[in-house]
Design brief:
Layout: H1 11-24, H2 26-32, H3 36-42, H4 76-84, H5 89-103, E1 108-113, H6 123-135, E2 158-164, H7 169-180, E3 188-192, H8 205-218, E4 223-226, H9 231-240, E5 245-247, E6 260-262, E7 276-277, E8 282-283, E9 293-295, E10 303-305
Parallel strand pairs: 1-2, 1-4, 2-3, 4-5
Antiparallel strand pairs: 5-6, 7-8, 9-10
Length: about 300
């Protein structure tokens, strides 16, 4: 996984941040940020404000914005991203050559995005990935039986797994596990990693080209697993238009249970919403203001668009 500065926030999220600065000023934003936790606790049972059906996003969008363009609210980033993010010829060459060589002939493709800055792979995260993918039927379980349970099947499905990470360690461990152990159903699992840059180098153009390539390749996979709070994964899921499984954050070197969860919306999470209403001079829960905006699975204070507030 590589570093890339992309405008991965939906228009509604971008507007939230700017409207706060316009009304309150930058000093107010800095002043009230420490109250975020207490505001969320006090507002945990807040009910959405009643708004007209034709104004489901209220004042969060710029004047003149036609909400009918997005009848399904969680598709805003998907359609805008597909319309606005076009790879250059050089990047498209990287994408198309890699896809044709490693992914195009697979029956099923799986993308796993691992956001870790450690030089060596964390065994807890490796176990977490395997637990998540097998429990959720994203990847096949490995068999203890020599040769596999269905090794005699002639027409075996091929599963290609694309791993993106700064480190090559996660790729190597997962690749070796599926090489050294057969799957319980006889399918063949091939694991690939386009690059391993070791550390983020956002100031280098070639590094950013590879990052954009890997984001796009992830968006071409059938099933997607992403890291918590990662804009890299947000963009991939948004372009693909799927709800990925998101890996839970580890605590004290302990694998979380459950290891991952399916997100409620394909939209990216905006990590820095405003939590203070300057007109009323009090804190608010921005996740309870309008029906189609609520808090994220991976950032409890973040916001994202989704289709149905009642679910």
């Amino acid at each position: 996984m590589l570093g890339l500065q992309l405008a991965s926030r939906p228009l509604v999220h971008h507007r939230l941040s700017w409207s706060f600065r316009e009304i309150c000023g930058e000093d107010a934003k800095m002043k009230f940020n420490p109250a975020i936790v207490s505001i969320l606790e006090e507002s945990s049972h807040a009910q959405p404000i009643e708004v007209p059906k034709d104004k489901l996003l209220g004042d969060l969008l710029p004047t003149g914005f036609d909400e009918s363009l997005f009848p399904e609210k969680e598709t805003v980033f998907h359609f805008l991203g597909r319309y606005l993010f076009h790879p250059t010829n050089a990047v498209w060459g990287l994408i198309s050559r890699y896809y044709e060589a490693y992914l195009s002939k697979a029956d099923v493709t799986v993308g796993i995005q691992i956001r870790s800055f450690d030089a060596t792979p964390d065994p807890v995260i490796v176990d977490q990935i395997l637990s998540c993918t097998t429990r959720e039927n994203v990847l096949l379980e490995m068999s203890q039986q020599e040769g596999g349970a269905n090794s005699s099947i002639k027409q075996k499905k091929k599963v290609s797994v694309l791993i993106t990470s700064l480190s090559s360690g996660y790729f190597e461990q997962i690749r070796d596990l599926y090489w050294e152990n057969p799957t319980t159903t006889g399918e063949v699992v091939a694991v690939f990693q386009p690059s391993n840059e070791r550390y983020q180098q956002s100031e280098k153009q070639n590094h950013n080209r590879k990052a954009w390539t890997e984001i796009y390749l992830l968006s071409l996979t059938d099933k997607l697993v992403t890291s918590s709070s990662s804009t890299f994964g947000y963009v991939a899921q948004g372009l693909r238009g799927v709800r990925p499984w998101i890996l839970s954050e580890t605590e004290n070197q302990t694998a979380p249970d459950p290891p991952c969860r399916r997100v409620m919306s394909m939209e990216p999470c905006f990590h820095s919403p405003a939590f203070f209403n300057c007109k009323t001079k009090r804190g608010i829960d921005p996740g309870a203001v309008v029906p189609h905006v609520r808090h994220c699975e991976d950032r409890s204070w973040g916001l994202k668009l989704f289709q149905n507030h009642s679910k």
